[in-house]
Amino acid sequence: ICFDMLKAGSIGPAFCMFNIYPYIFIFITLYYFLQHYHYCYVTFKFVATATDRIHGWSYSITIRKIDRRKPLEVYLMSFGTINKSMTVADAVKVNPELMDVLAKDGIDFCCGGGHPLAEAIAEKGKDVDAYIAMLNDVQVAQKSSRAEVLSYSKDQLIDYIVHTYHREQLNMIDEIDQGLAKLLNVHYDHHGEELTKIYQTFLQLKSALVPHFRHEEHVDFPEFQAGKPVDFEELRAEHEAAGVLLESLSALTNQYTAPADGCATYVYVFKTMKALEEGLHEHIFLENSVLFDMK
Prior knowledge:
By secondary structure, this protein is mainly alpha-helical. The chain has helices at about 20-35, 75, 90-95, 100-105, 115-125, 130-135, 145-150, 155-185, 190-225, 230-250, 265-290, and strands at about 1-5, 40-50, 55-65. β1 (about 1-5), α1 and β2 (about 40-50) form a beta-alpha-beta unit. The longest helix has about 40 residues, at about 190-225.
């Protein structure tokens, strides 16, 4: 149970005189959910007003069922705090702003979101305790669209994925396709071999993603919304295959760095490919670690 005390000014001894009735309501509610769900976690937020620090308290309650397959200490040890028992995805759910930090250090939070956080950190040759302490120091955005998306219902999240990620990324794929074709024509004499490998790899990615998106929109998502069974493991496997191709593209482009003699189009196309990769990481994370865990 996490008490997040937000106050306008110092509470001081007034907190000792706090009315007991909200506590009674809270624990009755907690007991009810424990009886029905066995394992759940509850967060409470109390807000004090500046004018009445004793009786001017309001509170909100969030109750979520947890994944029983995960160690219970992940949920009970500390809320709002990253710890070594978590998976990579668990850490991102605590603070979505960690996406940028993890991506910068090459820690996979999308296809690899289910991996133990400690192992993912160690694989990058970093001190686990020091790195987790650093993650806990990352500021939680007060008004974050990422955090808001994590609170969406199933229908809201599907609508968000389709109209934000699918539409935008399909447009980016077409733009990159045209741009790479142009680069091959203009820069073939000096960069033909490398651009050929890049274009071939990109076309593999395109041929995987376009039908994948369409199948999700026309089959998987509607069936999921209708309560029908969906093969999430197959979708995760397709995401994993796309992730491998993204890693290849990153390596072939030297992390999307245009050559010194590259023109403005060269720089722009590589920049767009990088943006596509970053967007796909967030997109896949939302599906693998959030949407597919919904009922």
